[in-house]
Amino acid sequence: MDNFHPRQRTIIKMLYEKKAVMKGGELAAELGVSDRTVRNDIAYINSVVNMDLIVSQNKKGYQLSDYVKASEIVANEGEGIPVLPEERINYILKHLLFRNRELDLYELSEMLLVSEATIELDLKEIKKLISENNRDLGLSRKAASISLAGSEKDKRALFSELLFKETNRNFFNIFKYERYFHHLDLTLIQRKLMQAVENYRIHLNEMAVVNLVIHIAITIDRIKSENILDMEVELDKVLGMREYKMAEELCGQLEDAFGVKFPRGDIIYISYLILGKSIIKNRYKEKKELEGIIDPQIASLTEALIASINREFGISFIEDDNLFIGLCLHTKRMIERVNSHVLLRNPLLDELKIKYPFIFELAVFVSKEFYKITGLVIKEDEIGFIALHLGAAFDSLNGNQTIKRKIALICPTGYTTSELLKSKLYSVYQDKIEILGTFSFMELDKLQKQEPDLILSTVKFEYEMDIKVIEVSPFLDQKDIEKINQHLYLYGNDIGRSRFLNDVNYFFRKDLFFKGNMFKDEWDVIKYLGNQLSTKGYTPEEYVNLVMEREKISSTSFGNLLAIPHPIVMNAYETVIAVTILQKPMMWGKNKVQLVFMFALKESDRKKLNELYKHIIEIVEKPEGVQYLIKSENYNDFISRILSYEA
Asked: Which residues pair with 508 in a beta bridge?
């Protein structure tokens, strides 16, 4: 067996899965180590396999030279020893949940090949993770032993969260969960569930089906280890529910298949899961069709939430029946989930937060308004689902006001090729573009008179023109789309890239740039930057509390060593961004963070929020972009790096 450290195996695995060049900084960021450590690891890997398995690509980064050899190493990896702090935390938690006994810390230290001091740090993060999710769980410690104390329901919720987190990229692939349930046939559970769903005419989407299968598997596993659930409910009300009857029938079939006996508490638990994860099919086109289907109180609540967006942000969705209907149906189920403590996981949550920050902020605001009216607190996953509804409505609103970008094609290879390219373009951009026609090189004068915003050529273009020309394949691959997107976005942006670059010294101030700080936790970072903003007259005194209030609703860390804390309200005296580059990464919610941007926006600059985010995200959405900024020596170097960065 190759004598690799787990971290070195991880490097091989990352490069194998990426199937492309990865920068040293990107690898270092993922692993939480220095660039030098990555270089040393790669040199060691190459020496062990007696070949240049990992090669440097002209300062662009690293890439595998032999994917077959790498696949053999990856295939022999097995479960392995967790390398990253997050992996160790999950590993410890799973052991606490699987075993009905205490864990010895010395034994754990030897098992994970780390010091006892490192285990102690991991335990601090575990305590923090548990407390942040408002669970009735805690670490119980006796001398050098630990155990997990709390309700069985919360233990199951934590167990499911760990599983979904570890299989996040393959959320819908049920086979990815089989290694956690060696003795259970998940496919059989899924088949029995789908039969019951059909019999009782309950609607579940694919995500809900996977969710339920895993929860049922956890329930069987916990029953077998004699961890019984006690549900306090109004029994008469529950027994009459269609979902209870379905759960009772389903559990009866599973009892025969797996040789277990489902106590009534567990059947009730599964019935609430079915209720919370089922959906109401949207067959409606007009508000009036919901009469008699949706409680008038929910309809009034939905109207109030939509009106609050108009009042606070000046965005009117009041005439959008599709949003009203969708949000009504979602709110009905959401209230049922909150009241029965059922969590519906949102696999798109992280992507929503980083790619559509403005829409997510609208959803955070709606969740706050929802709490004011109902007194119910909704989880981050639910906020993500609200964002999906708002995003569709926002796209529809903007679609009605879209200025079409005019595109001219140069495609000398013939009619069929040009028609193929047109078809591809319209399938991607739909009503956002207008194709002026296909031109030859002899028709360039005619083309210029049409005043296109962009020219796309399927062959090398060697003529000088004032109009942007992009060379593309007639098959329009992903790289082509990215090049076109970049131009269309910069052309159509209200403030434009050039204006952003001119204004960068206004948004980022020298007196709000800090480097090399160390803090206990994210709350200390927020206090420090918030106080700097307030003391220097950029924001009112209550700014720190407002940022903390927003952070408690949903973490502003993005899993890319980056956090962007900010309040919901925009009450700054000036629109500025405070920056701190930490001496080393620290845990911020569930993610490591080393670069922090604290946004302060004034009311009159409301529309700039989304645009500012877009420009910043262009740089920091990739690990190497964050690493590039983290290496800034001082304020001037930081500004220079923002202005010169090329994605």
From this structure: 577
Share in percent of the chain as helix, strand, coil (round to 5): 60, 10, 30
Instruction: Report d(CA 218, CA 465) in Å as an integer.
Output: 64
Q: How far is CA 640 from the centre of its chain?
A: 29
Same domain, 63 and 103: no
Mean pLDDT of 448-475: 85
What are the tokens at 555?
């973490």
Question: What's the DSSP call for residue 431?
Answer: G
Same domain, 568 and 481: no
Q: Please check whether residue 317 is in contact with residue 310, taking contact to mean a CB–CB distance below 8 angstroms.
A: yes
Asked whether the CA dihedral 489, 492, 495, 500 is positive or negative, the reply is: positive
- Starting at the edge strand found earlier in the chain, the sheet holding 576-588 runs 508-517, 576-588, 591-600, 561-563
Q: Does any domain span residue 156? A: no
500 and 629 together in one domain? yes
Residue type, 22: M
**Helix H or strand E encompassing 496:** helix 496-507
Task: Domain of residue 556: give its range.
Answer: 496-644
Total domains, the chain: 6
Question: What burial class does residue 564 get, using C-beta atoms within 10 Å of its C-beta: 0-12 exposed, 13-18 middle, 19+ buried?
Answer: buried
Confidence label for 568 from pLDDT (cuts 50, 70 and 90): confident
For 24-72, write each residue's pLDDT tens digit.
Answer: 888 887 777 778 888 999 999 999 888 899 998 877 899 999 888 888 7
Q: Are residues 524 and 482 in the same domain?
A: no
CATH number of the domain bearing residue 221: 1.10.1790
| Rounded CA separation 425/476 (Å) | 8
The domain that holds 35 is classified in CATH as 1.10.10.10
- 338 DSSP β-pair partners: none
Is pTM beyond 0.90 here?
no
Specify whether 517 is located in the same domain as 637: yes
- Output the six-digit token pair for 472: 């593309």
Residue 461 inside a domain? The answer is: yes
Domain boundary among 75, 101, 124: 75
Residues in the chain: 647
- In whole angstroms, what is the distance from residue 638 CA to residue 351 CA? 26
Question: Tokens standing for 309?
Answer: 């967006």
218, 245, 277: which is the final residue of a domain?
277
For the beta sheet containing 433-439, the strands, ordered from the edge strand earlier in sequence to the opposite edge, are: 433-439, 405-410, 454-457, 469-471
Q: What is the pLDDT of residues 451-463, one digit of tens each?
A: 888 999 988 887 7
Pairing of strands 508-517, 454-457: unpaired
> Does residue 80 lie in a domain region?
no
